[in-house]
Protein backbone atom coordinates (compact mmCIF):
# COMPACT_ATOMS: atom_id res chain seq x y z
CA UNK A 1 0.00 0.00 0.00
CA UNK A 2 3.04 2.33 0.09
CA UNK A 3 2.13 4.21 -3.06
CA UNK A 4 2.73 7.92 -3.71
CA UNK A 5 -0.23 10.08 -2.76
CA UNK A 6 -1.21 13.34 -4.42
CA UNK A 7 -1.69 16.36 -2.18
CA UNK A 8 -5.19 17.50 -1.27
CA UNK A 9 -5.22 21.28 -1.30
CA UNK A 10 -7.43 21.77 1.71
CA UNK A 11 -5.30 19.52 3.91
CA UNK A 12 -1.85 20.73 2.93
CA UNK A 13 -0.71 24.01 4.44
CA UNK A 14 2.70 25.23 3.30
CA UNK A 15 4.57 27.62 5.59
CA UNK A 16 7.63 29.42 4.32
CA UNK A 17 9.49 29.37 7.61
CA UNK A 18 12.34 27.44 9.17
CA UNK A 19 11.34 25.75 12.40
CA UNK A 20 13.73 24.60 15.11
CA UNK A 21 13.06 21.52 17.23
CA UNK A 22 9.60 21.48 18.78
CA UNK A 23 9.76 20.15 22.36
CA UNK A 24 7.22 17.69 23.69
CA UNK A 25 4.62 19.95 25.33
CA UNK A 26 1.22 18.98 26.75
CA UNK A 27 -0.38 22.11 28.13
CA UNK A 28 -3.98 22.81 29.08
CA UNK A 29 -6.33 23.37 31.98
CA UNK A 30 -5.23 20.69 34.45
CA UNK A 31 -2.04 19.51 32.74
CA UNK A 32 1.32 21.08 31.99
CA UNK A 33 4.15 18.79 30.96
CA UNK A 34 7.25 19.78 29.00
CA UNK A 35 10.31 17.91 27.80
CA UNK A 36 13.15 18.96 25.52
CA UNK A 37 12.88 15.52 23.91
CA UNK A 38 10.14 14.68 21.47
CA UNK A 39 8.91 11.96 19.16
CA UNK A 40 11.23 11.57 16.16
CA UNK A 41 10.92 10.36 12.57
CA UNK A 42 13.37 9.38 9.89
CA UNK A 43 13.33 11.56 6.79
CA UNK A 44 10.58 10.50 4.34
CA UNK A 45 9.15 8.09 6.94
CA UNK A 46 5.74 8.14 8.64
CA UNK A 47 6.73 5.74 11.44
CA UNK A 48 7.61 6.87 14.95
CA UNK A 49 11.19 5.94 15.88
CA UNK A 50 10.99 3.48 18.76
CA UNK A 51 11.69 3.37 21.60
CA UNK A 52 10.82 6.95 22.50
CA UNK A 53 12.76 8.76 25.22
CA UNK A 54 11.79 8.14 28.86
CA UNK A 55 10.80 11.78 29.34
CA UNK A 56 8.33 11.47 26.45
CA UNK A 57 6.95 8.24 27.90
CA UNK A 58 6.34 10.03 31.20
CA UNK A 59 4.46 12.77 29.34
CA UNK A 60 2.30 10.20 27.56
CA UNK A 61 1.39 8.59 30.89
CA UNK A 62 0.46 11.99 32.31
CA UNK A 63 -1.71 12.67 29.25
CA UNK A 64 -3.35 9.27 29.72
CA UNK A 65 -4.23 10.09 33.34
CA UNK A 66 -5.49 13.53 32.28
CA UNK A 67 -7.79 12.11 29.58
CA UNK A 68 -9.08 9.38 31.88
CA UNK A 69 -10.13 12.14 34.26
CA UNK A 70 -11.44 14.38 31.47
CA UNK A 71 -13.05 12.01 28.96
CA UNK A 72 -14.66 14.83 26.91
CA UNK A 73 -11.38 16.61 26.22
CA UNK A 74 -10.01 16.52 22.69
CA UNK A 75 -6.34 16.66 21.74
CA UNK A 76 -5.27 17.68 18.24
CA UNK A 77 -2.05 16.05 17.08
CA UNK A 78 -0.33 18.04 14.33
CA UNK A 79 2.31 16.26 12.32
CA UNK A 80 4.83 18.20 10.23
CA UNK A 81 6.80 17.30 7.12
CA UNK A 82 9.05 19.31 4.86
CA UNK A 83 8.04 20.18 1.33
CA UNK A 84 11.03 18.27 -0.06
CA UNK A 85 10.19 14.99 1.68
CA UNK A 86 8.60 12.20 -0.34
CA UNK A 87 5.17 11.00 0.73
CA UNK A 88 4.76 7.28 -0.02
CA UNK A 89 1.71 6.78 2.21
CA UNK A 90 -1.97 6.77 1.31
CA UNK A 91 -2.45 9.93 3.39
CA UNK A 92 -2.80 13.27 1.59
CA UNK A 93 0.52 14.43 3.06
CA UNK A 94 3.34 13.02 5.16
CA UNK A 95 2.61 15.33 8.11
CA UNK A 96 -0.88 13.85 8.47
CA UNK A 97 0.54 10.33 8.20
CA UNK A 98 2.96 11.12 11.05
CA UNK A 99 0.17 12.54 13.20
CA UNK A 100 -1.86 9.38 12.76
CA UNK A 101 1.11 7.15 13.58
CA UNK A 102 1.58 9.10 16.82
CA UNK A 103 -2.13 8.67 17.54
CA UNK A 104 -1.85 4.91 16.95
CA UNK A 105 1.19 4.78 19.23
CA UNK A 106 -0.75 6.58 21.96
CA UNK A 107 -3.63 4.13 21.53
CA UNK A 108 -1.19 1.21 21.88
CA UNK A 109 -0.20 2.71 25.25
CA UNK A 110 -3.79 2.67 26.47
CA UNK A 111 -4.89 6.21 25.63
CA UNK A 112 -8.51 6.48 24.39
CA UNK A 113 -8.76 6.75 20.59
CA UNK A 114 -11.84 8.96 20.67
CA UNK A 115 -9.98 11.82 22.36
CA UNK A 116 -7.68 12.56 19.41
CA UNK A 117 -7.96 14.52 16.20
CA UNK A 118 -5.13 14.71 13.68
CA UNK A 119 -3.94 17.12 11.03
CA UNK A 120 -0.85 17.55 8.90
CA UNK A 121 1.13 20.57 7.80
CA UNK A 122 3.94 20.98 5.29
CA UNK A 123 6.70 23.34 6.24
CA UNK A 124 9.67 24.71 4.33
CA UNK A 125 12.38 23.21 6.56
CA UNK A 126 12.89 21.41 9.86
CA UNK A 127 15.80 20.87 12.21
CA UNK A 128 17.39 17.47 11.66
CA UNK A 129 20.18 15.30 12.97
CA UNK A 130 21.53 13.44 9.93
CA UNK A 131 18.40 11.74 8.51
CA UNK A 132 16.30 12.16 11.67
CA UNK A 133 13.69 14.90 12.07
CA UNK A 134 13.71 16.19 15.64
CA UNK A 135 10.22 16.51 17.05
CA UNK A 136 8.00 17.20 14.01
CA UNK A 137 4.82 16.86 16.06
CA UNK A 138 2.82 19.16 18.32
CA UNK A 139 -0.20 18.76 20.59
CA UNK A 140 -3.08 21.11 21.37
CA UNK A 141 -5.78 20.49 23.95
CA UNK A 142 -9.08 21.77 22.58
CA UNK A 143 -11.76 23.27 24.77
CA UNK A 144 -14.56 22.87 22.24
CA UNK A 145 -16.35 19.54 21.87
CA UNK A 146 -18.44 20.54 18.87
CA UNK A 147 -18.29 17.72 16.33
CA UNK A 148 -21.06 18.67 13.95
CA UNK A 149 -20.54 18.65 10.21
CA UNK A 150 -19.71 22.15 8.99
CA UNK A 151 -18.32 23.90 5.97
CA UNK A 152 -14.54 24.33 6.04
CA UNK A 153 -12.85 26.70 3.60
CA UNK A 154 -16.11 26.84 1.69
CA UNK A 155 -16.38 23.08 1.27
CA UNK A 156 -19.77 21.46 1.78
CA UNK A 157 -19.25 18.05 3.36
CA UNK A 158 -22.78 16.98 2.48
CA UNK A 159 -21.78 17.29 -1.18
CA UNK A 160 -18.61 15.29 -0.54
CA UNK A 161 -20.62 12.57 1.20
CA UNK A 162 -23.04 12.38 -1.72
CA UNK A 163 -20.12 12.12 -4.16
CA UNK A 164 -18.49 9.30 -2.18
CA UNK A 165 -21.72 7.30 -1.83
CA UNK A 166 -22.71 7.82 -5.47
CA UNK A 167 -19.51 6.08 -6.58
CA UNK A 168 -18.46 4.10 -3.51
CA UNK A 169 -15.13 2.46 -2.84
CA UNK A 170 -15.37 -1.17 -4.02
CA UNK A 171 -12.47 -3.52 -3.28
CA UNK A 172 -12.29 -6.87 -5.04
CA UNK A 173 -10.79 -10.10 -3.71
CA UNK A 174 -9.37 -13.32 -5.07
CA UNK A 175 -11.13 -16.54 -4.09
CA UNK A 176 -10.59 -17.25 -0.37
CA UNK A 177 -7.97 -14.47 -0.24
CA UNK A 178 -7.81 -10.74 0.35
CA UNK A 179 -6.15 -8.47 -2.17
CA UNK A 180 -4.29 -5.34 -1.01
CA UNK A 181 -3.36 -4.03 -4.47
CA UNK A 182 -5.14 -0.73 -5.06
CA UNK A 183 -5.31 1.24 -8.29
CA UNK A 184 -5.11 5.03 -8.50
CA UNK A 185 -8.89 5.52 -8.48
CA UNK A 186 -9.27 3.36 -5.36
CA UNK A 187 -6.48 5.24 -3.58
CA UNK A 188 -8.16 8.55 -4.41
CA UNK A 189 -11.46 7.29 -2.99
CA UNK A 190 -9.68 6.32 0.23
CA UNK A 191 -8.22 9.83 0.41
CA UNK A 192 -11.69 11.35 -0.01
CA UNK A 193 -13.19 9.06 2.64
CA UNK A 194 -10.35 9.75 5.07
CA UNK A 195 -10.64 13.49 4.49
CA UNK A 196 -14.39 13.39 5.21
CA UNK A 197 -14.08 11.32 8.40
CA UNK A 198 -11.21 13.45 9.73
CA UNK A 199 -13.24 16.65 9.31
CA UNK A 200 -16.77 15.52 10.21
CA UNK A 201 -16.77 14.53 13.84
CA UNK A 202 -19.88 12.35 13.72
CA UNK A 203 -19.04 10.78 10.37
CA UNK A 204 -19.05 6.98 10.19
CA UNK A 205 -18.51 4.29 7.57
CA UNK A 206 -20.34 1.11 6.61
CA UNK A 207 -18.27 -1.71 5.09
CA UNK A 208 -20.26 -4.56 3.55
CA UNK A 209 -18.57 -7.79 2.48
CA UNK A 210 -19.84 -9.90 -0.43
CA UNK A 211 -18.92 -13.24 -2.03
CA UNK A 212 -19.70 -15.35 -5.09
CA UNK A 213 -21.97 -18.41 -4.75
CA UNK A 214 -19.28 -21.10 -4.75
CA UNK A 215 -19.73 -23.36 -1.74
CA UNK A 216 -22.24 -23.19 1.10
CA UNK A 217 -24.06 -19.95 1.84
CA UNK A 218 -23.04 -20.02 5.51
CA UNK A 219 -19.36 -20.25 4.59
CA UNK A 220 -19.73 -17.40 2.11
CA UNK A 221 -21.36 -15.21 4.75
CA UNK A 222 -18.36 -15.85 6.99
CA UNK A 223 -16.01 -15.09 4.09
CA UNK A 224 -17.85 -11.84 3.36
CA UNK A 225 -17.47 -10.82 7.00
CA UNK A 226 -13.74 -11.60 6.87
CA UNK A 227 -13.42 -9.36 3.83
CA UNK A 228 -15.31 -6.57 5.57
CA UNK A 229 -13.13 -6.93 8.67
CA UNK A 230 -9.98 -6.92 6.52
CA UNK A 231 -11.11 -3.69 4.86
CA UNK A 232 -11.88 -2.13 8.26
CA UNK A 233 -8.42 -3.07 9.48
CA UNK A 234 -6.81 -1.50 6.42
CA UNK A 235 -8.80 1.73 6.78
CA UNK A 236 -7.96 1.85 10.50
CA UNK A 237 -4.26 1.61 9.72
CA UNK A 238 -4.67 4.50 7.32
CA UNK A 239 -6.07 7.07 9.68
CA UNK A 240 -9.74 6.25 10.27
CA UNK A 241 -10.82 5.50 13.83
CA UNK A 242 -11.96 1.87 13.91
CA UNK A 243 -14.84 2.81 16.22
CA UNK A 244 -16.31 4.78 13.30
CA UNK A 245 -16.40 1.75 10.98
CA UNK A 246 -19.30 -0.71 11.02
CA UNK A 247 -18.94 -4.03 9.17
CA UNK A 248 -21.57 -6.38 7.74
CA UNK A 249 -21.67 -9.38 5.44
CA UNK A 250 -24.22 -10.08 2.72
CA UNK A 251 -22.41 -13.24 1.58
CA UNK A 252 -23.69 -14.30 -1.86
CA UNK A 253 -27.09 -12.61 -1.48
CA UNK A 254 -26.47 -9.40 -3.47
CA UNK A 255 -24.50 -10.32 -6.61
CA UNK A 256 -23.58 -7.66 -9.14
CA UNK A 257 -22.19 -10.15 -11.67
CA UNK A 258 -23.24 -13.41 -13.27
CA UNK A 259 -22.06 -16.25 -11.03
CA UNK A 260 -22.05 -18.61 -14.01
CA UNK A 261 -18.97 -16.81 -15.41
CA UNK A 262 -15.48 -16.31 -13.98
CA UNK A 263 -15.72 -12.55 -14.54
CA UNK A 264 -19.07 -12.35 -12.79
CA UNK A 265 -17.80 -14.29 -9.80
CA UNK A 266 -14.77 -12.01 -9.56
CA UNK A 267 -17.04 -8.95 -9.53
CA UNK A 268 -19.09 -10.47 -6.72
CA UNK A 269 -16.07 -11.05 -4.45
CA UNK A 270 -15.93 -7.54 -3.02
CA UNK A 271 -16.42 -5.11 -0.18
CA UNK A 272 -18.32 -1.85 -0.57
CA UNK A 273 -17.48 1.18 1.60
CA UNK A 274 -20.01 3.99 2.06
CA UNK A 275 -20.57 6.82 4.53
CA UNK A 276 -23.48 6.19 6.89
Provide a descriptive summary of the structure in words.
The protein is α/β, with parallel strands linked by helices and 276 residues long. The chain is built from 6 helices and 13 strands. Strands 1-6-5-9 form a 4-stranded mixed sheet. It has a 4-stranded mixed sheet with strand order 10-13-11-12. Strands 4-8-7 form a 3-stranded antiparallel sheet, with no helix packed on it. The protein starts with 13 loop residues before the first strand and ends with a strand. Mean pLDDT is 82; it is low at 1-21 and 144-154.
Instruction: Describe the oligomeric state of these chains in a short phrase.
Output: single chain
Report the sheet with the most strands, covering strand number, pairing sense and barrel closure. Answer: 4 strands, mixed
Return the average pLDDT rounded to an integer: 82
The strand line-up of the biggest sheet is 1-6-5-9
Percentage of residues in helical conformation? 25-40%
Task: Kindly provide the radius of gyration, computed on alpha-carbon positions and rounded to a whole number of angstroms.
Answer: 20 Å
Beta-strand fraction estimate: 25-35%
Number of strand segments: 13
| Parts with pLDDT < 50 across at least 5 consecutive residues | 1-21, 144-154
Shape: elongated
Q: What is the SS-derived class?
A: alpha/beta
